[in-house]
């Protein structure tokens, strides 16, 4: 990752995002605190996609004409820039998917579809174990449930502790020589908890297990260097990191990708096709069947350029300060329970809370009336909410353009919401 090329000036940054000037009502400015679900896009990202569509739009890798060549250059150039942003050893290890969910499904499906030609360490079969955590987003849980169902493998999970971190007390009995895969999130989308990846990935390597990391919530907010991370596969989503919807990334070690069977089949991912059999292209093309998300890849590359210019360390520092400000404010409010760790080193910028006796949908509706846009519900993490006896939570998530004043308005909005419901009692 390169050093930042611009000063981190939040007001100048806000000017890059045209949607932030929107008024929800004539007298209600928008305070957007839902980047953990979908981030907003700077003009640079919007322009990149529009420029591609108005200048170079064509099918990639399929034509001999100049437009096809320009489109292919834009698409593969985007892959190179994204690989550089992530610290990937090679662009050929970057597979474009439609989101992080598809990336995780790709890995889970391919690990179960191997045959005798697939290396044993890349085949999940009956008797093997898959280890996940109790905090996983459904995207990193349900695919492993399905893999276990198809193959006869056993699904196990690392439980949660009362302090909203993983309970690693029995890790030695959970992560064994039978464990074929350890799949876990880098940062919880609900709790903001940052998992101790160094310890967990090292323990998995010691027993020969493959490691799959869901970085959808971490890659937009802090440095993620794939060359140093030590994982086997990493998934992330473009629309959570200032990029377009409809694009995600699966990074995998090239030797794994080259040995796995394809997830989807059809055009563009083949080597040779006969009526009765086919052979498949080398990665990453093997996993990109059909027409890929070309303009979205261009937009995502522009988003990584934007993040690089700001500097991921600067972004992490900015959001850490906002998170601590929000936690201090919420902690002082009656009837508010913060759902997540309080310690700064163990958490990042997703702040969830429960307002005693009130459904999060009702809380979110009142906040929306104040122009404060947050996420409500179980956040695609039902098992995690059940662990803490919750039907759902209200979550604010911060971004590069979030200001201290917006965080203060959020805390004040929660206080006003609590007062409103108290007045109805």
From TrEMBL:
What Enzyme Commission number does this protein have?
A: 2.8.1.7
* Uppermost EC category: transferase
Any Pfam family from its record, for instance, is Aminotran_5
Which reaction(s) are listed as its catalytic activity? (sulfur carrier)-H + L-cysteine = (sulfur carrier)-SH + L-alanine
Q: Which residues does the UniProt record annotate as the domain Aminotransferase class V? A: 31-410
Its needed co-factors are: pyridoxal 5'-phosphate
One MF annotation (Gene Ontology) recorded for this entry:
selenocysteine lyase activity
Q: What keywords were assigned to this record?
A: Lyase, Pyridoxal phosphate, Transferase
Q: Does the keyword Translocase apply?
A: no
Name the protein family: Belongs to the class-V pyridoxal-phosphate-dependent aminotransferase family. Csd subfamily.
NCBIfam families, sorted: sufS
- What's the protein called, per UniProt? cysteine desulfurase
Species annotation? Brachybacterium sacelli
> Which taxonomic lineage is given here?
Bacteria, Bacillati, Actinomycetota, Actinomycetes, Micrococcales
């Amino acid at each position: 990752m390169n050093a930042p090329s611009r000063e981190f000036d939040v007001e100048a940054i806000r000017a890059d995002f045209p949607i932030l000037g929107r008024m929800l009502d004539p007298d209600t400015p928008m305070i957007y605190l839902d980047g953990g679900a979908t981030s907003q896009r700077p003009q640079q990202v919007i322009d990149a996609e529009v420029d591609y569509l108005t200048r170079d739009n064509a099918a990639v890798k399929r034509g001999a004409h100049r437009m096809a060549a320009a489109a292919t250059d834009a698409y593969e150039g985007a892959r190179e820039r994204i690989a550089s942003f992530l610290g990937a050893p090679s662009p050929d290890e970057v597979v474009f998917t439609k989101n992080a969910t598809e990336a995780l499904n790709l890995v889970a499906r391919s690990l179960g579809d191997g045959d005798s030609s697939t290396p044993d360490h890349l085949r999940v079969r009956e008797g093997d174990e898959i280890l996940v955590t109790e905090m996983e987003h459904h995207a990193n849980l349900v695919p492993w449930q399905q893999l276990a169902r198809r193959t006869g493998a056993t699904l196990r999970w690392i439980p949660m502790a009362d302090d909203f971190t993983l309970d690693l007390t029995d890790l030695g009995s959970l992560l064994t020589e039978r464990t074929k895969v350890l799949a876990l999130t880098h940062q919880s989308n609900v709790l903001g908890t940052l998992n101790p990846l160094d310890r967990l990935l090292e323990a998995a390597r010691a027993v020969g297990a493959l490691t799959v990391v869901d970085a959808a919530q971490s890659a937009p907010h802090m440095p993620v260097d794939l060359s140093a991370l030590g994982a086997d596969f990493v998934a992330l989503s473009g629309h959570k990191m200032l990029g377009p919807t409809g694009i995600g990334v699966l990074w995998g070690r090239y030797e794994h990708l080259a040995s796995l069977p394809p997830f989807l089949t059809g055009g563009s991912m083949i080597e040779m096709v006969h009526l009765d059999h086919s052979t498949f292209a080398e990665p990453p093309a093997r996993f990109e069947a059909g027409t890929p998300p070309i303009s979205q890849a261009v937009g995502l590359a522009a988003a990584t350029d934007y993040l690089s210019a700001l500097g991921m360390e600067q972004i992490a520092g900015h959001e850490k300060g906002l998170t601590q400000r929000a936690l201090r404010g919420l902690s002082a409010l009656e009837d508010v329970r913060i759902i997540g760790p309080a310690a700064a080193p163990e958490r990042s910028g997703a702040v969830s809370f429960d307002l005693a006796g009130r459904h999060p949908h009702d809380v979110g509706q009142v906040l929306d009336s104040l122009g404060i846009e947050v996420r409500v519900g179980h956040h695609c993490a039902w098992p995690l909410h059940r662990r803490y006896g919750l039907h759902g939570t209200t979550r604010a998530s911060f971004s590069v353009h979030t200001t201290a004043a917006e965080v203060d308005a959020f805390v004040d909005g929660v206080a006003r919401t609590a007062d409103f419901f108290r007045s109805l009692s």
